[in-house]
Amino acid sequence: MTDLKELLDGVAGQAKLYDGMERAITVARRRRRALRLAPVAAAVVLAVALVAVWVPLHRQPGGSDVAAPGELTWLPGRVGVPEQPLPPLPADRAVAPGVLTYMAYDPPNFGGATLLTEDGRQYRLAGRGEEPFSATGISPDGRWLLTVRGGKAVLRDLSGAAERQIATGDGMGMSWSPDGRWLAVWTNTWSPDERAPSPENATSSVSVIDLHAPQEPPVRLTRLPAQSRMIGVLDSGELVLTPIDLHRTLDVWMIDPKTGERRRHYTLDATPWLPQQKYLPFTEQALTPDGRTLLVRSFLKVVGDYPDSDDLLAVDLETGRVTRRYPLPDPHPLPYTVKGPPEAVDLSDNRALVAVLPDGVLLQHIGRPETGGGPFVIELLDLSTGKLHPASDLSAGVYRIHAVRGG
Amino acid sequence: VIVDDDDGFRDFVRARLARLSRVAYLLTGDHHAAEDLVQTVLIKVAARWSRVSATRQPDAYVRKIVYHEHVSAWRRRRRLKEQSTARLPETAGRRDEADDAVRRLLLERALARLTPRQRAVIVLRYFEDLSELDAAAALGCSVGTVKSQTHHALGRLRVLAPELADLIRNPREALV
Known about the structure:
The structure holds two protein chains of two kinds. Chain A is mainly beta.
């Protein structure tokens, strides 16, 4: 019996072969060439004109406007804190996919946690005086919101009303796979008589959830490499772990998400890449979505005479060699003071790696508002070109960024 | 150093061009528009091929561009002209008189009167056989939106082509 699919097959059967492949290659080459040669001034004029047209037509409520460059169309170019009290996140219905969470510093919304969604709306996750979240996270597709409060990790499906607790513990961290399928929640637990809890004396476990089957209970892994920490999850579901205590070598383990078995193990000698740095804990590490390249960044901007320590380095896991260096230039390397609540804080100018997505690496940059945006700017580092694009400016009323989609 | 991997792009396109052409025709219902859609998509993919291939999910990326471009192109075309349905039959005969060609024409005419989003969701769910989650990813919307769009699209198809009402049903409903 014919059904809709067969009918559609029949309609599609009338299609011709629309072969524009060679023309596409020619045009793409010409555009790449033009991009390399085009005067910067022309690009600036065009961008200004586009923004001038786009902003009045597409202004969103809540102060979010201007689509971000590149592929991050879900990230507004600018985020401001609404002057009206925010509604709580509805518990009984869906909202648009999540974009980021932050804390505001001005009344009436200061002190709590706020969720910004893709449609420009903002919701109060926790108000002032309520127990604060120790961590929040948003899946790369924006569908899932993870909140950690009071030692409990709760996963909310923003496309509906489902919510459930997925892990408990004293200290938690999370990672999403770049494709958004896997969520891993790292839990540290200390015995009640532990006086000085630290990662070294914690009992660690990881709860892994396949978000393609979110109703399934999490797989809890406890047989982990000793003294290790999680730096990511691959699209395959493999957990990526490195040791807590690092010196001149860096171990990277890939862990099976179902059994906890070690699938791969790399030992990398960091001497050639960070010759002046004795201890690697002062580095930030992540893996590219293909699982082949380790991204390493030193927190120390100047180490001895080594001027490029703040670059992001791409290290091939198989060879242990640096395959590319991504400069992260910073024209305003001075600390900045953000007013309360509860009191003003001095933010040291720096960048933090937020998430590794198929579109590139998301970084949070604390800058100086009077010289070009900020204090918080979300940047996208395009790994194929090495270009750093300002993607979102959170300059008005934001006290702290909790999480950006994918992190 | 960025290497332009034209051969990789060619291999990718050759393996998928037939499928891409069929989807484009289903989305547009017109050979010229379908050709334009495929061309636009291929140019965009070629320009970003190094990034697209690096994602390990080039199909999902291309699919997203196809559906996004489809909606954008429809908006541009709408400003220029009303869609013509002159070549389609004004009415259909009874079910037992309708051969496959007539049913296809009826479906084409009904599809042409859906919104681009409704049309896209029908193609994604019932031609490409994607899950609601994957369809939502391709359209850049929530699963809830896909569900409601599917529901409305199927309902509208039944109204626009009542002769096909018993054929236009949710396959999952049919399995129950």
